Amino acid sequence: MRLVLLGPPGSGKGTQAARLKDYLQVPHISTGDLLRAEVAAGSPLGLQAKEVMARGELVSDDILLGMLEDRFSRDDTRAGFILDGYPRNLVQAAALGQLLAKLGQKFDFAVQLDVPTDLLVERIAGRAKAEGRADDNPESVRKRLQVYTDQTAPVIDFYRQQGELTVVDGVGSLDEVFTRITEALAPAKEVG
């Protein structure tokens, strides 16, 4: 199963992706982790990314897409993957679809974890306090969440229009949210 996890910071994407990885027996691919690994490995794309980051710029969609193409070409992704952190905008969503078509892989679902903003602020503030981070105050968190919403709302609509979006209530215990996700994916898991 090939799926994208969508959700703002604090929605539980990373936690649920780790659980889904075991449940679906497919790798969890975080673009942030992938980028760091490529830079550390000194791959050609990693070296390009390192130069861009050294200039204080954002890594281009082309570089990220190249890294994803390489990652999706590995044996462990034959049965699928869980993608976290990509796509973040419409250009990336379209590029992901084109890449999968090029590789002859079918996209299954975009799963959106739906969590109210006030709860997200509370979760992130709690996490920041536990980790001793001063940069995650409620005001800065709300700004980050607004940027996420502005950038990702079109991606959510894109997948909705394609009939590929599944919205899951992200409020509750880890087990409750996980059960909702697996129940939403169950028909596709039986077919695939």
TrEMBL record:
- Residues the entry annotates as binding AMP: 31, 36, 57-59, 85-88, 92, 133, 144
Q: Which Gene3D superfamilies match?
A: P-loop containing nucleotide triphosphate hydrolases (3.40.50.300)
E.C. no: 2.7.4.3
Describe which pathway this protein belongs to, using the record's wording.
Purine metabolism; AMP biosynthesis via salvage pathway; AMP from ADP: step 1/1
| Origin superkingdom | Bacteria
**Where are the annotated segments for NMP?**
30-59
| Keyword terms | ATP-binding, Cytoplasm, Kinase, Nucleotide biosynthesis, Nucleotide-binding, Transferase
Q: Does the keyword Cell membrane apply?
A: no
Q: Which residues bind ATP?
A: 10-15, 127, 172
| Record bears the keyword Transcription | no
- Fetch the CDD domains from UniProt: ADK
Outline the subunit composition: Monomer.
Role of this protein: Catalyzes the reversible transfer of the terminal phosphate group between ATP and AMP. Plays an important role in cellular energy homeostasis and in adenine nucleotide metabolism.
NCBIfam families reported in the protein's UniProt record: PRK00279.1-3, PRK14527.1, PRK14528.1, PRK14531.1, PRK14532.1
Name of protein: Adenylate kinase
> What gene is this protein a product of?
adk
